[in-house]
């Protein structure tokens, strides 16, 4: 009974050298081969591959005679044997529905062909960042593929041709692409979206994507991106370090600006997540209705010049424009809201959000040093709120500094003032101030110094692991 559960999720990690056990100092795999290879060997030779539902291969694969093979146009034998072994595992894993290749060596045509004849629904592929010659595969369609994630895509590193995969995988709904950061760092617009999506421009080949996530994109925009997918199907949009905006250097303006002005209508969009707010983002939020989740990721720590924040981070006008369009167009539907930590909100901003976004469940913002009672009144007006974060301003947030001057006991007293002194039917379960997280539980009776008993809620300090699955913490990162 436990064997199917044991092999349902298989994750094998390869290392570029021999590791030694801490207990007895013996090398791992002593007497056989590395644990990575022995794991693949077990899946091929034992009758357990049929139980595998998810297979992940990660780590560093050591390629021998790499320079000599590159000069002579050959693939190292170790990499060829690895791909052959993985192909056999895929062939035997009849229940496989999720496959992840995150090795530092390239996946060869033999694995792609076996994936095309499998039943996988989710695929993650990391391309190598080295420029060693490798075969360029025209990736075939995968009939049941629903979710695709491509990592470290670099046009100069022999990346595979995925245009046929995009056009032929009719069930594809989630597409996540992370380009190598090298192009943006070096201001090299070598990415050609037409090459990747050329086969999708036909009317019957347009992608019906519900989720699009892109990171590190640096390419010229000509308005043709809307021809590759059906904008009326898109529900979730994630754009990280792509289109320029908040805090970006002006050197990328000639490439980013045309791309930012080519946004098609998105009638079904429900969630937006990005890290570079701009006027174009305000225009996007103005043209859509019914947004439920908005995450604007801010900088974490920055060294100010001469004790003051950089000029572009004092964008009060941009902050006001975003809050205006959020409360006006999406107040009735918005459930999650994460504002960047470099936007200090005044009490007027907080009051406007509280009056317009009554269905908020999760909220994060950086506040100015108003009394805790003011924020407590704001919490009382949001009956659906379950989690709130008062973000730490990366330069000088007096609200957070005021709390850090006290001991832990006094910090809890400050949170207690925000919560309420009794009589409320609902309060957020999670409250974070700076880097201190508190869990608010049921009402208890607490005796004061005057020996009078007042109803108060129990407040306990927690660590970040307690909230790692809550969106305003989990999605406050640059990962897609």
Task: Offer a few descriptive terms.
480 residues; alpha/beta; 17-stranded mixed beta sheet; 17 strands; 20% strand
Number of helices: 16
Provide the low-confidence segments as ranges.
303-308
Structural class: alpha/beta
Radius of gyration, taken over Cα atoms and rounded to an integer in Å: 26 Å
Task: Please describe the biggest sheet, giving its number of strands, its sense, and whether it closes into a barrel.
Answer: 17 strands, mixed
Mean pLDDT: 84
**E-strand count:** 17
Strand content: 15-25%
Categorize the overall geometry. Answer: globular
How much helix, percentage-wise, in residues? Answer: 25-40%
Span from first to last CA? 36 Å
Record the SSE blueprint.
Elements: H1 3-6, E1 9-14, H2 35-45, E2 54-59, H3 66-71, H4 77-92, E3 98-103, H5 109-116, E4 122-126, E5 147-153, H6 163-168, E6 174-179, H7 182-185, H8 193-197, E7 211-215, E8 236-240, H9 253-260, E9 271-274, H10 279-287, E10 293-296, H11 316-330, E11 336-338, E12 344-345, H12 347-356, E13 362-367, H13 372-380, E14 387-390, H14 398-404, H15 408-419, E15 430-433, E16 436-447, E17 453-462, H16 471-474
Parallel strand pairs: 1-2, 2-3, 3-4, 4-5, 5-6, 6-7, 7-8, 8-9, 9-10, 10-11, 11-13, 12-13, 13-14, 14-15
Antiparallel strand pairs: 15-16, 16-17
Helix pairs in contact: 2-4, 4-5, 10-11, 11-12, 12-13, 13-15
